[in-house]
Amino acid sequence: ERVLVPRGWKKKPVVLLFTVCRPGFFKASPHSPSCSKCPPHSYTLDEASTSCLCEEHYFRRESDPPTMACTRPPSAPRSAISNVNETSVFLEWIPPADTGGRKDVSYYIACKKCNSHSGLCEACGGHVRYLPQQTGLKNTSVMMVDLLAHTNYTFEIEAVNGVSDQNPGARQFVSVNVTTNQAAPSPVSSVKKGKITKNSISLSWQEPDRPNGIILEYEIKYFEKDQETSYTIIKSKETMITADGLKPGSAYVFQIRARTAAGYGGFSRRFEFETSPVSVAASSDQSQIPIIVVSVTVGVILLAVVIGFLLSGSCCDHGCGWASSLRAVAYPSLTWRCGYSKAKQDPEEEKMHFHNGHIKLPGVRTYIDPHTYEDPNQAVHEFAKEIEASCITIERVIGAGEFGEVCSGRLKLQGKREFPVAIKTLKVGYTEKQRRDFLGEASIMGQFDHPNIIHLEGVVTKSKPVMIVTEYMENGSLDTFLKKNDGQFTVIQLVGMLRGIASGMKYLSDMGYVHRDLAARNILINSNLVCKVSDFGLSRVLEDDPEAAYTTRGGKIPIRWTAPEAIAFRKFTSASDVWSYGIVMWEVMSYGERPYWEMTNQDVIKAVEEGYRLPSPMDCPAALYQLMLDCWQKDRNSRPKFDEIVSMLDKLIRNPSSLKTLVNASSRVSNLLVEHSPVGSGAYRSVGEWLEAIKMGRYTEIFMENGYSSMDAVAQVTLEDLRRLGVTLVGHQKKIMNSLQEMKVQLVNGMVPL
Ligand code: ACK
């Protein structure tokens, strides 16, 4: 180091000496007595530097002190998952592995709307709302609402920090593709009155702001003011109607709602209009047909409804002519309406009166069993698109199915970008029955359209090999995937998976389809951790499943996943699917562990019948284990329905702190030992409880202090250990050892009595 005497100081009696910094060192102020080493990721090649330069790809904010290390933008967030609820999407992710050396990491969400045919994406625009916000997110989750229904979106989650804006390189983000579900239309907001006479009111309205699909029809409900219990409903495909048969000079309340394939939207607010008052001339006019809304009794209405339903069911077969004349008998005012307004009203407009009651109107799609088709080929072509084999490129074999290999490949349809698919093939030399059963799955799958149900692209039946082409799920079967990634996910991510499965199952049960083989091995998971229910079939499903075993009644059933009533007397319902769903919950929360471990099927049946249930998986939130136990209620009517399960999981996802309470570690029993009260008072939840029950509570503290804090640990206790713990009284030793012995004998491997 050279010593300099600054100019101008020469005349002073005191001489200050300053150090000149070497390369790699700096001194922010010339007055500082010493040099500092360049902070991490910075350097200087010059002498006497007052600051250090940042290395390539590292930056410094103006407000960063020169002593602070240079930093860089964070890496991309990780493991993003999405939950779609109609037109809302909840995203959650894990912070980036590299924060770039800064603490000011926040997140930015970019939203793109993508065309499923061309694959082209555009910015979402201003209609999307972000909760709590789109930029500067501090938490690792966000909710997007007011998205369009049935639309493909790509969300890019970017982690940014104080130096991201200086980075000329590519943005680091994780992207999530989602397809929003169908949503019911928004309410009609504007209704205008048209021509008003003393007996009629004409109305017109505008389509809802967010139709969320094609509007199939409108339902107009009206009633005389303050007479709400007696109302009339008109259905119309137009955005205008005339309500007639009204009382002169009376106020009527109107509400309108729209229906799309997703169901009815909410009713509009109430609009009130008044008919013209009756005039003397008019009232004496004999040519006027007096129309009175008939307030019918509940009995007549119900009868009418039943007849109406019977008729609407048979309408397609017989034509609507005789049906509508019969309906006119049930609805006197309809006779008049049809005669009067056929020319100007939509023939499908219907009018019904209600009195103190509601009718569930048809419109919900249901699953059609392909067995009901005489010709199975007709069924498959009704529900599945025929694809030309030349559009498919098979890339590699990914597994084996009952009927042949399962491959991955690519599908290029006209006017669409090529995209990855899974291809199930039917092996050569198949029988006609095998072909029918193989394609049966496509006939079923093709009827479903839901983001949590595996999507069928189409079938190849006109050339060989016969193939079923579905969307490709990058992570394969859920059970294998979880086993491979043991302990790698947050609880919220696991609950997200469960939510998806429950949502798919809700859709299936709404369609009237009972899966019968719901298990993690039959769920597929994609790169965004979206789970989809797969493996559809009729009898075939169970034939195909290596887990399925023959029961004494001859059926083949996957015992460990199946509800007792389905095993005992083949009562397969959506409620038995709920039982299986509880087992899937257990599989997911235990990362793919085998339910009931190595117990034999016979032991499982016996134990379940005796009231034993699987214990909680390790580190499982208490709320989730409780939901599993609810799914395993013996009485199938007491089990939750899938829509309740979805709502419950949504609540837990929205309020993650509710997942913090785990099943008490000491009450959680391992697969080695499960408590069953030797004195018949139920399972012991803790060592203390057990010792108290056998009147040995005085040893609780000693047991706990010496590591025997769980029933698992207690199971290993020997007489020697007891002596070491200071249990010297022979009577006490006997009591404890006998109780342990008794438990071991009575215990069923790994299960808790309900
Ligand atoms: O666990 P995996 O990789 O996922 O092995 C099985 C195998 O084929 C036999 O069923 C995989 N598989 C089935 N359908 C699909 C699909 N749509 N996308 C990706 N993999 C699939 C399954």
Structure description:
- Helix 5 (376-383) packs parallel to helix 6 (432-445), helix 8 (491-510) runs antiparallel to helix 14 (642-654) and helix 11 runs antiparallel to helix 13.
- The protein has 754 residues and is an alpha+beta fold.
- The protein contains 19 helices and 34 strands.
- Mean pLDDT is 80; it is low at 280-349, 354-363, 670-682 and 745-749.
- It is globular and about 105 Å long.
- It starts with a strand and ends with a strand.
- The strands form 11 sheets. Strands 17, 18, 20, 21, 22 and 23 form a 6-stranded antiparallel beta sheet that branches. A 5-stranded antiparallel beta sheet has the order 24-25-26-28-27.
- Among the domains are: 1-70, Tumor Necrosis Factor Receptor, subunit A, domain 2; 78-179, Immunoglobulins (Immunoglobulin-like, Sandwich), CATH 2.60.40; 384-471, Phosphorylase Kinase, domain 1 (2-Layer Sandwich); 478-640, Transferase(Phosphotransferase), domain 1 (Orthogonal Bundle); 671-751, DNA polymerase, domain 1.
- It binds 2',3'- cyclic AMP (ACK).
- 2',3'- cyclic AMP binds next to strand 24.
Give a topology summary.
Elements: E1 3-4, E2 18-19, E3 25-26, E4 36-37, E5 42-43, E6 53-54, E7 78-85, E8 88-94, E9 106-114, E10 121-123, E11 129-131, E12 141-145, E13 152-160, E14 173-179, E15 191-196, E16 201-205, E17 217-224, E18 230-236, E19 240-243, E20 251-260, E21 263-264, E22 271-274, H1 280-283, H2 298-318, H3 321-330, H4 332-341, E23 350-355, H5 376-383, E24 392-400, E25 405-411, E26 419-425, H6 432-445, E27 456-460, E28 467-471, H7 478-484, H8 491-510, E29 523-525, E30 531-533, H9 540-544, E31 549-550, E32 556-557, H10 564-569, H11 574-589, H12 601-609, E33 612-613, H13 622-631, H14 642-654, H15 687-693, H16 700-705, H17 711-714, H18 719-724, H19 730-746, E34 752-753
Antiparallel strand pairs: 1-2, 3-4, 5-6, 7-8, 8-12, 9-10, 9-13, 11-12, 13-14, 15-16, 16-19, 17-18, 17-20, 18-23, 20-21, 20-22, 24-25, 25-26, 26-28, 27-28, 29-30, 31-32, 33-34
Helix pairs in contact: 2-3, 3-4, 5-6, 8-11, 8-14, 11-13
The structure holds 2',3'- cyclic AMP.
